[in-house]
Design a protein that fits this description.
Number of helices: 4
Order of helices and strands: EHHEEEEEEHH
Largest sheet: 7 strands, antiparallel
Shape: globular
CATH topology: Alpha-D-Glucose-1,6-Bisphosphate, Chain A, domain 4
Strand content: 35-45%
Radius of gyration: 15 Å
Oligomer: single chain
Number of strands: 7
CATH architecture: 2-Layer Sandwich
CATH superfamily: START domain
Length: 151
């Protein structure tokens, strides 16, 4: 399993505008084909905020939890999935025409837990189809964010 999956897009909007969308976790279901809900716990999102999430993949719906591990307004946002240790992040880079938005999924320990690898193999047809769907979902998410901001 690769340690990093990544997608990026150029958006004709200032980093502050892009940030206002990606940092509003309650809106993630508008953009992500795999996240039905992401509910932050507490009054505001910051480093240390926990979230309760509802996800879907290939007909399966399942809950997860995460913790915000990086929160730099207008620059970077990352959260670690508690169940598998993966880190999902957004990085915003100012460009002449707006913002380059990068979405990544990192596997810091180099591999997923055995139970998850087993599930990926049995329920999702193996690593390549599973990760292909993740990357497709990342591109779809970024495309929807772009369309929302460029309206």
């Amino acid at each position: 399993m690769p340690n990093k999956l990544e997608a990026s897009i150029e958006i004709a909007a200032a980093p502050e505008q892009v940030w206002s969308v990606i940092s509003d976790f309650k809106r993630i279901s508008e953009f992500s084909p795999q996240t039905l809900r992401m509910q932050p716990l507490g009054r505001s999102v910051h480093t240390g905020t926990w979230t309760v999430n509802l996800n879907k993949a290939k007909g399966y719906v399942y809950p997860t939890t995460s913790k915000v591990v990086r929160f730099e307004p207008n620059r970077a946002l990352a959260f670690r999935m508690n169940e598998n240790g993966t880190v999902w992040s957004y990085t915003l880079e100012p460009t002449d025409g707006g913002t380059r938005l990068v979405q990544r999924r990192d596997v810091p320990k180099g591999k997923l837990p055995g139970w998850l690898q087993f599930t990926i193999d049995k329920a999702f047809g193996g690593e390549q189809p599973f990760e292909g769907a993740l990357v497709d979902g990342m591109h779809e998410t970024l495309g929807k964010i772009k369309r929302t901001l460029e309206r």
